[in-house]
Amino acid sequence: MTNIVLFGPPGAGKGTQADILKEKYSLVHISTGDVFRYNIKNKTELGDLAKSYMDKGHLVPDNVTINMLKAEVEKNPEANGFIFDGFPRTAAQAEALAFFMGEINSQIDAMVALEVADEVLVCRLLERGKVSGRPDDANENVIRERIAEYYRKTDILKDFYQKKDKYYGVNGVGTIGEITERLSEVIDGLL
Ligand code: ADP
């Protein structure tokens, strides 16, 4: 089983690349943002709760997110491996993930991070907001708050994986194909 955390700030291109990589390596892609949006669309209790945080650009509380992620993993007992996109985003989530993967006799093999400058991120997210229908992409203040939240709570996870020799940074600026190529080099090295 090969399990990858695809990492990077909002707008780094995680979703786009995960969609390509899951086919290429036959992995199950779990995007916490997509699961939250699905719940919001279907007006579930989880969706209502998540929306109240997401609309402000804040993270959804750890206990809620961790339980949800665990349930998504458990839905796929036959998986070859997972690409986690948008998880973990806090130290508590990273600890929970390590514990949980251990319980199913597996582990995270690598965190692969897409590196993109902040001003490029803001431009990309504003562009995406014109077509995605995502309210959190439509407002520059919310976008900047998401990036600030990333630096407050998420960026430190680089250290968490670096200490385990599992961190790989990749330049996230270029064509989609070029970036897939760079990510693939890292993943091929793990197999
Ligand atoms: P982005 O495109 O900004 O990377 P996502 O689509 O992954 O965002 O997630 C959108 C929002 O969902 C986040 O801003 C956050 O409010 C919530 N969210 C997603 N993943 C997590 C997580 N692991 N922990 C807490 N909140 C999360």
Notes on the protein architecture:
The protein is an alpha/beta fold and 191 residues long. The chain has one domain (2-182): P-loop containing nucleotide triphosphate hydrolases (Rossmann fold, 3-Layer(aba) Sandwich). Helix content is 59%, strand content 12%. It is built from ten helices and five strands; from the N terminus they run βαβαααβαβααααβα. It has a five-stranded parallel β-sheet with strand order 2-3-1-4-5, with helices on both faces. α1 (14-25) crosses α10 (176-190), α2 (32-41) crosses α3 (45-54) and α4 packs parallel to α5 (91-103). The chain is globular and about 40 Å long. It starts with a strand and ends with a helix. Bound molecules: adenosine-5'-diphosphate. Adenosine-5'-diphosphate binds at residues 10, 32-33, 36, 53-54, 58-60, 65, 86-87, 89, 93, 136, 146. Adenosine-5'-diphosphate is lined by residues 10, 32-33, 36, 53-54, 58-60, 65, 86-87, 89, 93, 136, 146.
List keywords for this structure.
191 residues; alpha/beta; Rossmann fold; five-stranded parallel beta sheet; 10 helices; 5 strands; globular; binds adenosine-5'-diphosphate
